[in-house]
Design a protein that fits this description.
With 300 residues, the protein is an alpha/beta fold. The chain is 42% helix and 21% strand. It is built from 10 helices and 13 strands. Helix 8 links the parallel strand 9 and strand 10. Helix 1 packs across helix 2, helix 1 packs across helix 3 and helix 1 packs across helix 4. The chain is globular.
């Protein structure tokens, strides 16, 4: 039995649908469906009840899942222990950070390096959905990302919703609002909005919220990184945007107003995420406990 098909099967069971599993695995749905058909043909029995809206494993599917998870966890642990033996003189932690929260999590990375100077920290920066995939594939140990859509496979430390701010060109709005600006008011401006590289996310939630006030929304650009939006605005793009407050430095935006958004939707929820049910590096477990301690003290 092919290990890759086995891992695909377990992911589908955990996610509840092929579409969600395909997003986590960072692959298209048709080849994933084909792999499952091949697995069912190899076993000679259906593994899912397809009469319901969600994919529900059959009795045979439940049995396969329980045993496949044990096999995959054993393989992952063997690989991990082998890596630990190979690098026992040097501790390494692999962290993925979402583009959305580079500034927000930079202080955590700094505190981590100060607390554990003996550890080499390897950092990857990518879209939250891609970092979920890297976690599932055990390519990174911890992800600092937007709240995952499906949390069953993960342990999470939730930071709480991030404050949402609007950045508006002064040429479009000469006088800065005294306290805040409404989403309804923002529908009058050309917008540059964050949009993840793959799949649905904050963009769709925000567009739905804006459509409550206007049928036509003038989105002139969709960008996956807050840093690029800020750079474009520094170059003089005349538009408005909505960003997590942690990623905006108003002192550097001379020709723009930075304003709190009144009654904002809960768009940006930073989290520390790791795979659940993984016997991992003791150092990673220690860092996780330290993260929980920081969260409880509100000093993340």
């Amino acid at each position: 039995m092919d290990l890759k098909r086995m891992r695909y099967f377990c992911t589908i069971v955990e996610q509840g649908s092929i579409s969600h599993a395909a997003r986590v695995l960072n692959m298209a749905q048709p080849p994933l469906s084909k792999r499952m058909q091949e697995l069912e043909a190899e076993i000679g029995a259906p593994l899912f009840d397809r009469t319901n809206r969600a994919l529900i494993p059959t009795e045979a599917g439940v049995y396969l899942y329980q045993n496949a998870k044990e096999i995959l966890n054993n393989i992952d642990n063997i690989r991990l222990q082998t890596l630990l033996i190979a690098s026992r003189n040097k501790k390494i932690i692999r962290i993925g950070i979402s583009y959305l929260f580079l500034s927000y999590f930079s202080s955590f990375i700094h505190k981590l390096s100060q607390r554990y100077p003996e550890i080499e920290i390897n950092i990857s920066v990518a879209d939250s959905s891609h970092l979920e995939f890297l976690l599932v594939q055990r390519i990174i140990d911890i992800a600092l990302i937007q709240k995952p859509k499906m949390t069953k496979a993960f342990d999470v430390i939730e930071m709480g919703p991030m404050k949402l701010v609007a950045v508006i060109a002064k040429s479009l709005l000469p006088e800065k609002p005294r306290k805040s600006i409404t989403l309804e008011a923002l529908t009058r401006f050309p917008l540059v909005l964050l949009h993840r590289a793959g799949g649905n996310g904050t963009f769709e939630v925000l567009i739905d919220s804006l459509h409550k006030y206007a049928h036509e929304i003038n989105v002139i650009m969709q960008v996956s990184e807050p840093r690029l939006i800020i750079e474009l605005f520094n170059l003089g793009v005349e538009a408005a945007t909505l960003l997590p407050a942690s990623e905006v430095n108003s002192k550097n935006l001379y020709n723009y107003h930075v304003v709190d958004v009144a009654s904002p939707p809960s768009l940006f929820v930073p989290m520390v995420v790791r795979l659940t049910h993984v016997i991992g590096n003791p150092t990673i477990n220690e860092i996780w406990e330290w993260g929980l301690e920081l969260q409880s003290k509100g000093s993340f």
